[in-house]
Amino acid sequence: MTTNMKGAHILVESLKREGVETVFGIPGGANLPTFDALHRSSLKVILTVHEQGAAHMADGYARATGKVGVCLATSGPGATNLVTGIATAFMDSIPVVAITGQVRTSVIGNDAFQEADTIGITRPVTKHSFLVKDPREMARVVKEAFYIASTGRPGPVLIDLPVDATVNEAEFVYPERVNIRGYRLHAEPEIPRDAIRNVAEAIARSRQPVIYAGAGVLHAGASAELAELARTTRIPGSPHRHRGAV
Amino acid sequence: MPERPASQDLLIGIGARFDDRVTGKPDEFAKRAKKIHIDVDPSSINKTVVVDYPIVGDVKRVLQELNRLVKPLDTREWLATIEEMRRKYPLTYREKKKLLPQFVIQQISEVTKGTAVVATGVGQHQMWVAQFYQFNTPRSIITSGGLGTMGFGLPAAIGAQFGRPDAVVWDIDGDGSFQMTAQELATAARHHLPIKVAIMNNQHHGMVRQWQDLFYEGRHAQSRLNPVDFVKLAEAYGCAGIRVEQKADVRRAIERAMSVHDRPTVLEFMVEEAENCWPMIAPGKSHDQMLGTYEALKQEGGIPQHRHAEPDEEAKLSLG
Asked: Is the ipTM of this complex over 0.85?
C-alpha cells in the first residue's frame, strides 16, 4: 500500500531530508499550495518584504553557515524580483536553491496572469534549473538541485513549480543517491599527481612566492590545508581582503 | 620607485578566479611571476590570466597531496622585504575635521574584537570594511564581490543572523546601498534580530562621486543623494536608531548598539562627504599605476596619523 501526497508536501518533506530548517520568501497566487504546506510543517518560514531580500537572505545564510540557502517567490514578478539575488549568488559561487511558483502547465506560454518565462530569464545566472510538471518528479528534482548547488563549484539552482505540480498527488519516495547525466565532478576522478609534483617543484625553486587564495578554499573546506601549506613553506598570502573568507 | 608586490616570482592561485578587480590589466598582472592555478572549475583556468601550472581538482584534495610534497623554504629575506614595505607604505588615511568612515569601521572592529559577521553593501564603505575591519574568523565577511549588488548588506546580514543566531552580525553600509533594500528592516524587527546596521551617511553614491572627481573633472552627475533621517526611519520600523556626528561619540554609540539584544539597531554616522577610498587602480591600469598610495598622500601634505593595525604573527602564518 502506498500513500500519496500532494506535490507541495513532497517538496516540503524533501527539503527536510536535505536538512533545511529555514526558508525565506513571499507567497502569491502561484505558490499558495507550497506556502500552505510549509505553514503546516516544522520549517521556519521567514516572510520578507521584497523577493530580492529573500534571495539575499538565503545567500547570506549560505555564506555564514556553509549550508544551502533557500528562497521562494511566486510566478511572474515574484520570480523576476529574485533575479538580482540569484545573479549575486551566481557570481560569488554561493549555494542557493530558489523555488518559484509558475502558472499551471496547461496555460504556460499563453501570457497567463503573472506568467513569466522564469527558466529562460534565469538561465544565464543559474548553475542549473528545473521545471517540474509532474509531482512524481518532485523528490528527485529537489535531491538533484541541492546536490548541484552544493558540489563542485557551488552556485544557485532554480526549481520552477507550476501550480498543478504542487496540488496533484504522487507517491513520496526520496531517492538515496543522485545520478545526473553530464554532471561529472572533478573532485571524483583521480587528482593529477604529476601536475601537483610539478607545482611542488616550482614552489621549491621560488624565492619570492605569494599565495593568492579565494573563497574556493572555503567552499572546499580546505582552510586548514591552506594554513598548513603556508606554515610549512612559510609563503605569505595576499592579505586582508580574504582574511574573513579563508 | 619602490618595489611593488608585482615583484613576486611565483603566484599560487587557489580557489580564486583572477577577477579583473584583483588583476587590474591582466597582461601586466604579476608579470615576472610563474603562475599556478588550482581550481575545481576548468572554465576558470586561463580565462583572464594565462597560467604556467593549471590544476583542475578539488582544492582540499589537491592541497593535501601538495602538503605531502612541499618542504620549508627559506623565505626570511622575502618576508623581511614585505615587512619593510608594510612599514614604509602602510594602509592609511589622513585625519579630517569631520568624522571619517575608516575611523568608524576601525572602532567597530575593535569593539567586536574582529569576531563579528560583517555584511556590506557595495561602494566605498565596502572597500573600507575590507581594509579596516580586522577579520579573524572564516565565513565572517559577507559581501557581493562579483556582481557588486548594492542593497545586499541588510538582507544578507538578516540571513546570516538566522543561520548563526549566536553570532554578532553587523551590516556596514552606505546610505546609497542601504536604501535599495532598507524595507527589510521590517523583517529584522519582526523577528527581534539583534543585528547592527552602521550607515556611513555621506549623502552620495560615494564611489561614483570619487570616480567623477578623478575621471570626469568633478562633474557630479546624479551622485548626490537626498538627505534622509535614518534614525526616524529606524524607529518607524521598530528598530533602535542612533545618530553620531562627533568622533568622540563613536565608541559609546557602538557599545550601546552592542547592548541592544531584542531588536535591530541602526547607527547613522554623519561622515565626511569628500573622503576618497585609497589606494585604487584605475580601470584598465596595472598594479604599479596605483593611485592614492601612501607616498602620494604624503606629498599632498600632512603625515598620516592612523596606520592599519599590524596583523599579529599568528594571523600572518595562518593566512587567517
From this structure: yes
